[in-house]
Write a structure and sequence with these properties.
This protein is mostly beta strands and 227 residues long. The chain has two domains: 33-64 and 157-223, conserved putative lor/sdh protein from methanococcus maripaludis s2 fold, CATH 2.40.420; 67-153, Elongation Factor Tu (Ef-tu), domain 3, CATH 2.40.30. The protein is built from three helices and 16 strands. The chain has helices spanning 3-20, 23-32, 219-223, and strands at residues 45-46, 56-58, 60-64, 67-77, 80-86, 102-107, 112-115, 117-123, 130-135, 147-153, 158-164, 169-170, 174-180, 186-196, 200-205, 212-214. Strands 1, 3, 11, 12, 13, 14 and 15 form a seven-stranded antiparallel β-sheet that branches. Strands 7-6-10-4-5-9-8 form a seven-stranded antiparallel β-sheet, covered by helices on one side. A hairpin with a 5-residue loop joins β13 and β14 (186-196). The longest helix is centred in the first third of the chain and has 18 residues, at 3-20. Residues 16-44 have low confidence and may be disordered.
Amino acid sequence: MSSAQRGVSTRILLTILWLVASAGIAYLVARNVTPTATSSGGDLNVPPVAIEERATVALETRTVQPVLSAEGRVAQDGSRWLLEATILPESLAYQLLDSPVGVKALITGGPAGFDCAWEGLLQSPETGGMAMRCQIPSDIKVVAGLPGTMVVQLMEATEVQALPVSAVIGTSETGQVIVIESDNQTSVRQVEIGLSDVFHIEITGGLEPGETVFENPVQSDFIGVQS
């Protein structure tokens, strides 16, 4: 295995461990909270803040490795053991018409970070929606019904202008950040979002490289109330 391949495997393993540690929950919450400021229809200036007391981060070039994770369960197919996971939202299924770069999996409470051979897409017998599945290695002990997680690497890692995911509040296409302006005040800025993984999110518009934002904005930042 080349050093590049080892790097990819290590990064995906870290992704899985991160998910197990429940940071993925915080990520989903942060990405989908709708701040009160959105009702203003534009940028919202808020009073000066003690910036030195807040963690900040600049928009800069970072490595983003898009992955898709999904919860699923073990199923038996003859002598084979498969992990089947529902794809949410279903629109992501189109990205998997071609085989992904790699697939890692874990069994809840059991083995983690093992390679799981891609088996493709199927219609979920439980929900009727789209699901994906991979074949569990024969040396991994499982029984039907065990819960697990699939982490699919959608494409090779790429260098983009990005922020930590914790700095962006929003959806999969647009979001908001708290920008620290040159006059030591802050403002809410709407940004356009591109690629993302569990660590970083690409900013494709609304923010210039080098501009600084709060790394962990809170609700009061968007409504002008100091915490």
